[in-house]
Amino acid sequence: MSEIPLTSSVSKGCFVFKSASKKRKRHVGVGGYLVDDSDENGSDRFRICQKLWETVQTNTEVIQDQLNKKVLDSLAEFIKKHGLGCSSDNWRQRARETPTAALMLGVNVPDHAMTFRSLCNLLQDSVTPFVVSVHAKECAAVKLLIQKVLEQLMGRGVSVDEEQEDDTALLQRTQCTISALCQWYKTVTKKCTQVFPQRTESLTNSDLPQSLPVVVIFKDFEAFNSQVLQDFILICSRYTQELPFIFIFGIATSPSAIQHRLPHSVSSLLCIEVFHSLSCTQHLASVFDKLILNSQFPFKLSSRVIQVLVGIFLYHDFSVQNFVKGLQFSMLEHFKSQPLSMLCCQKQEALLSAKTLSKKNVERIRHLPSFMRYVETQEPQEQVQLLTNDEHVKEVCQQLLKNLHKYHKNYYPILQCLHSLTSSLPKFPLGKHIRELHVSCIEKNLWETEEYDSALQLLRILAKDELVAALRKCAEILKSTKILQNVLQQLEDFIGRLEALEGVSSEDSSGNGIISGKMEYQRTDLFQLQKTLLEKESRRTKRMNPFEVLRSQVIEFIDSLVREYLTPAELQPLNEVCYYNSSGVLRQRLNVTPRTSIQAALSHPFYYLQNESLKTDAGTISSAAPDLCIVYKLHLECGRLINLYDWLEAFLTVMSAAEDQDTNSEECGKYDSLKQLFQRWNFLVSLNQQNRRLTMWQD
Amino acid sequence: MVSTPLSKWKLAAITSAPCGAYMNYAEGLMASNIPTSPQETAVDFQEMGLQDKLLRKPTNQSITRMSVTLQCPGYPEDTLRSLAERLPCRETQLATLLALMGQPDQYSYPSVFIYGHRATGKSHVVLSIMKDLELPHASVDCVECVSSGLLFHQVLSAFFGPDAAALLPRCPSLSDFVRLYKQMSSNSPATQTRYIILDRAERMRDMDFSLLPALLRLQELVNDNVTVILLSEIVWEKFRPNTGCFEPLLFHFPDYSKAELVQILSWDHHPSYTPELYASYINILLGVFFSVCRDLRELRHLAVLNFSKFCEPLEKGEAKESDIHKLWKNIEPHLQRAMQTVYLREVSSVQWEQQQMDEKEATTLRVLSAHAHIELPYYSKFLLIAAYLASFNPARTDRRFFLKSHGKIRKTNFLKKHEKTSNHLLGPKPFPLDRLMAIFYSVVDSRVAPTASIFSQISSLVTLQLLSQVGHDDQLDSPKYKCSVSLDFILAISRTVGFDVVKYLYDFL
Q1: A512 in helix, strand or coil?
Q2: How far, in Å, CA of B164 to CA of B189, rounded?
Q3: Do B371 and A231 count as a contact with CB atoms less than 8 A apart?
């Protein structure tokens, strides 16, 4: 079917373009999209990618758990304490006060889901089976909120609207009230104590009357309608004697949100305690440490890509979840677009697949820019070998892969050392966070930058104890990695020498003091003073004390380490295998611009509709295009001001070229609705209401 | 058909035996005032209370006196006495209520409306009477009744058992309720007056408009000895429906006086200390707080919070119980500090106690409002600043602030009259999305692409309630927003991004 598609679009509200091939599509799995007919190892790459993704996921979960452990444990402790009937102040019964935990989570709302999930699990495992979590969206009215709570607790549907006809509900119709919940709670707890007397004993751990609290978690406190919340709290407070409620408010902004939402009459019914979770920047730092600054993890991001991802995090959402999603996306994109990414896996596996490279892939390796650079540095004979002999390329490739892995292994410990040395310097010349240092290291030669120079300058004036402490920290880092043993040895040697310096340096400084003391008593004119000061200056530079000598040696040593190990990744041959560097694609996909895509769709309808007949040359306007596109293109041809009548005429001309019959009035109507649409999209702004012929176009 | 005439309960009120001299007075008042408007009745009750207080002041032994005077035929005497003891400072109200109720088998006034401020003991007095005298009653909190069906259900199940309530059809109407009630009460007619107590009755106004008038004359409708007692914090004038209705008997619960507060608060003294010590503590506490807070519940909370601090010198052995002055010196600064946060409930009692323990010297109180600081993404901060500027600057001044080549505009003759008043006094004004974005692009220092995440940040600011959307949620075309943060907040935010927001605010030119 190759007729011109019907494009009376706006009047109909949708486009229908049938696909050119009527062939039924085969069902393809997820992996199928990665597999092209043209390359043979697509499934391998998909497998590697999936495996890597799994490790990413488990790692992030582990990190999240570790980070949240403290606050979650204290929350559980709080609930346990109140579940047992707060014993610290039982001389005064706190009638009708509901214990409430205000959990500060930060504004990165997407990340909260994970925290709440682990909180729910923790509470259900260790404190009480009665945990309910509610979302603001589902609870527009008190009725719905109560229903939600009852449903989750009692595990079956409860009729809210009494008009709803429901046969099962007729049998055991529970009314949607908290008093019904009270009844249910009584029977359940009675059963609990009968069935598991020993279990409950172990839970309560004492002779206190056992009562399992009912925990209600308000996931997004700010979004709740305050009237709903107030009513719910008032209702619950009526039943605190029979039903030990505990609330948890998940608050994104600040604790004062509670005061803004709840009046005194309600907040006086709560006994609020505030819990703070870790800030999202700390969370990101630990994720970064685990996933990106880790030699075990073969997939790497180039500096540009890191900048895009971190930029999205810092400028837009503060969401670690989205950061990990971005990482996942770049991983998928890398493994899909780079056929050689099959080598991006653990060392042994990579060497194995390097041995069995196909001819096509060997050719691809030859075309890698980094490999070409490598070839250029070789002897002419070797160059010929590399360009002609496939087997030789495979061997070299294995060697290069080994080198690459070794480079990564050495890179990260040294990076951490440098960071620990420079992170305490004033004004943070090399960045406050290790990610900034990492980005500048893999981007360019660090030692050529000004920031590095100023950092070394600052290191050169470090006091002894500070220097020793910093070096000790470095030694700790190196010790924990168990590589670079010779570096570690040298470091410890330096530390030992610095400490042995104790007596000498103090003696020396006192000697200096005596000299300056003598100077003070001499009468000097200005010229002489200048001279003596200059002299002093030159003497000091000439005669460094042993500590200063040693210090400069240490700095030299650090500098040499940086030059040796922190070379930019782009210089490493075969870096394209591991490094994903198309930041443009990433930005386009993750940070979308709706307006640009609308403009693209309007000016190039083929781009989205994929219909051959819509392909046009740059300057022409095809009458086959959707009328919307025609109007858009015509309006682009006008200047800043548009004469509406001319515009209409042009539109009618183009349209009538397509259709023979004269349906002028219909076209006019269509044109009118299109104009309105444009105004709505802010492409057009009406300039003068009285004289409707002129309209200004605003971009 | 209506056989509950006014005469019947009038009779009841009059025939109920006199209980003490002033009860006679009260009844005389009632009897004489019945034909007049209920409003006056209420006023009279207040007057009566006042007179009574004047009368009692010299004797100052109200409890003993009341226990003697409080006698009502038809109710066991010792229960009444214990009731009067359990309700200190509410003897007048108790006696009046009992007089209103009459003997158990007598008809009472169809509806009574009790009002008074929060924590004046309205529900407590009424429910204590009901429980102690074992009267048939249904106590319903109107907050709970999201539909009138729930109210009917609770009333019926309280009077006739859950089986009767189960007979209610789904989504029952008022007539269903009346029919069922009649049917049930014909089976088991009331031997005693049945009471329906509706707490937080102001919520009834949001329910079906016919519900309140019907409940007010329920006695006539169901032809049974039933009385509806409405409890509310607001006055009856705010309840009266347009169409008119049966006027209930109005009854005011006055606020507690200082002496009464002392008496009540002294009740819950600590078991390990003498009541005298606790009473003196309460006196000190009220001396500090009475000028700002008369809410009994809040005072109680404060009393509990600070008592351990008060006892600290005693525990350490630095002072004896008789050294009131020393104890006062010790507690006074703490109470002054607690004064800053009265009503806020910023710290829970447990946290407060911990703080008091940890405290060394004058450490600042780590209260809820102390961490009002919010971490926001970079562009969100600028969006918020732009929203603030859009909310508090007149739209006509945007040219002056955000255009490079603006002419000099004088503040005085440039604006209309109403715009001359400070915008910060008038509160935030709504602004369209376009204006927000225009200001945003001009305040943010780098070039920002109008990406989807910028727009999603606006909506997330709305969910965080830092912005609020004006008009309907479903208005997609050009949504309007308001900025709902304070000047202090925006100053703190703009300081973190190095933006001088004051320079851009019209009010501070």
Answers
A1: helix
A2: 14
A3: no
Q: Which residues of A touch B371 (CB under 8 A)?
A: 104, 254-255, 274
- 3-state SS, residue A205: coil
* B478: Cα within 13 Å, side-chain hemisphere: 12
Strands A214-218 vs A245-251: parallel, antiparallel or unpaired: parallel
> What letter represents residue A522's amino acid?
Q
- Asked if B344 is an interface residue toward chain A (Cβ–Cβ < 8 A), one would say yes
The torsion region of residue A106 among left (phi > 0), alpha (psi -120 to 50) and beta comes to left
Whole-angstrom Cα Rg for chain A? 36
Separation CA A68–CA A115 (nearest Å): 7
Q: How far is CA B51 from CA A645, B55, B249, B261, in A?
A: 88, 6, 21, 19
Angle between helices B275-289 and B296-316 (to 10 degrees): 120
Instruction: Say if CB B171 and CB B203 are below 8 A apart.
Output: no
Q: How far is CA A142 from CA A178, B68, B145, in A?
A: 11, 48, 10
Please give the Cα distance from B307 to B300 (Å, whole number): 11
Task: Compute the distance between CA of residue A206 and CA of residue A157 in angstroms, rounded to an integer.
Answer: 36
Using alpha carbons, list the distances in angstroms from residue B346 to A26, A240, A270, B71, B373. 63, 21, 10, 46, 16
Q: What are the CA-CA distances from residue A218 to residues A145, A541, A586 (Å)?
A: 10, 67, 35
C-alpha A674/C-alpha A680 separation (Å) is: 10
Is-contact A174 A180, C-beta < 8 A?
A: yes
Tally of CA atoms within 13 A in the half-sphere of A371 that contains its CB: 23
Is B343 within 8 Å of chain A by CB? yes
What is the three-state SS of B353-421?
HHHHHHCCCCCCCCCHHHHCCCCCCHHHHHHHHHHHHHHHCCHHHHHHHHCCCCCCCCHHHHCCHHHHC
Handedness of CA A260, A263, A269, A271 (dihedral sign): positive
Q: What is the pLDDT along chain B (509 residues), one digit of tens a residue?
A: 444 444 444 334 433 433 333 333 344 334 333 333 444 444 344 444 444 433 333 334 444 444 445 667 778 888 888 888 888 888 888 888 888 888 888 888 999 999 999 888 899 899 999 998 888 999 999 988 888 888 998 899 999 888 888 888 888 889 999 999 999 888 888 888 899 999 999 988 888 888 899 999 899 998 888 999 999 999 998 888 888 888 999 999 999 988 888 888 888 777 778 888 888 888 888 888 888 888 888 888 888 778 877 888 888 877 777 777 888 888 888 888 777 766 666 555 555 555 555 543 333 444 444 445 788 899 999 999 999 999 998 888 888 888 776 555 555 555 555 666 778 888 899 999 889 999 999 998 778 888 888 988 998 899 888 999 888 776 777 789 999 988 988 998 999 889 999 988 888 87
Decide if A314 and B143 are in contact by the 8 Å CB cutoff: no
Taking CA atoms, what residue in B is nearest to A136?
B463
| CB nearest A267 (choices: B171, B345, B455) | B345
Pairing of strands B111-115, B249-252: parallel
Q: Whole-model pTM? A: 0.78
Substitution target in A78, A87, A92, A98 with the highest count of B β-carbons within 10 Å is: A92
> Are the beta carbons of B350 and A89 separated by less than 8 Å?
yes
B452 shares contact with chain A (CB less than 8 Å): yes
- Under 8 Å between Cβ of A575 and A569: yes
CA distance A193 to chain B (A): 27
Contacts of B153 in chain A (CB under 8 A): 175
Mutate which of A82, A243, A272, A323 to disrupt the B interface (most B C-beta within 10 Å)?
A: A272
Distance CA B402, CA B120 (A): 57
DSSP state of A20: S
